[in-house]
Design goal:
mainly alpha; elongated
Length: about 70
């Protein structure tokens, strides 16, 4: 049961980490110029980065525990 939740958290973190800057650059611009994230956007980006790294580490620990018992 923990593996699907861990993978979901990993992919959500990846989407926030990589998708957020792409959205700010291409979609949120004014007058055809690329946009810049506000304070809330930076918080979401940092949260996505932390979620991605933490879930990757936990998934590696889970895999090692399954491999070595």
């Amino acid at each position: 049961m923990t593996y699907p939740l861990l993978k979901a958290a990993h992919y959500i973190g990846l989407a926030l980490f990589l998708g957020g800057p792409a959205f700010w650059h291409w979609v949120s611009g004014d007058s055809g110029r690329p946009g810049r994230p506000g304070r809330g956007g930076l918080v979401l980006w940092a949260g996505g980065f932390l979620l991605f790294v933490a879930s990757g580490f936990l998934d590696a620990a889970r895999a090692a525990a399954d491999l070595y018992g």
